[in-house]
Write a structure and sequence with these properties.
Shape: elongated
Helix content: 40-55%
Strand content: 15-25%
Largest sheet: 3 strands, parallel
Radius of gyration: 16 Å
Structural class: alpha/beta
Distance between the termini: 46 Å
């Protein structure tokens, strides 16, 4: 098995890959596996399951957090002070959104400030 090395700016990818490797190598058959979309930890497992590589008889559930009304207002304001320039944030956003798309089912947990 090939070992994949991740750099310090690839924390999300590293965590997600470690979870995938653990489930892939485990001798346990899981009935249901729960992930939160915000952690990004389920991304590679969800991707591999979607491709039919692992977890074929497992229900993968992804819980997601909705943004607060205040945060939504900031995003929709168009204020350039809130422009995202951090590549890691964009990767996190992609992993979160793609995890939700790949999930078999989703649970919504709302947080309001």
């Amino acid at each position: 098995m090939e070992n994949i090395s991740f750099g310090p700016t690839q924390f999300l990818e590293s965590r997600s890959h470690n979870v995938y490797q653990y489930i892939k190598q485990s001798q346990i058959t899981y009935g249901t596996v729960y992930f939160t979309s915000s952690s990004g930890a389920g991304y590679y497992t969800l991707l591999a399951s979607h491709q039919g590589l692992i977890c074929l008889n497992t229900t993968l559930v992804v819980g997601f957090e909705t943004i607060s009304h205040r945060t939504r207002g900031v995003i929709e304001s168009g204020n350039i002070d809130y422009l995202v320039t951090d590549l890691n944030y964009l990767k996190w956003d992609y992993i979160q959104q793609r995890s939700l798309e790949l999930a078999v089912s989703t649970l919504e947990v709302s947080y309001y400030y």
